[in-house]
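S1.2 Input.
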Amino acid sequence: MSIILRIRLAWHTLSGGALLGVGDTTSARVAAIAARGLVTPNSLTLREIRAVCASALMQAAKKL
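S1.3 Output.
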């Protein structure tokens, strides 16, 4: 299974919603988690960290 497919499945599992497609943006929930993580990084749970990372990777350029 490719890494992109694994990330998409992880995102779907964590968010309980649809997978991000081309041109989609981060949800308000994930954006709020990221903002809180910038202020107090130790307050994030592992699940929240994974959600933010999955969102960032799904929106990254395909050159990774």
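S1.4 Remarks. The chain has one domain: 3-59.
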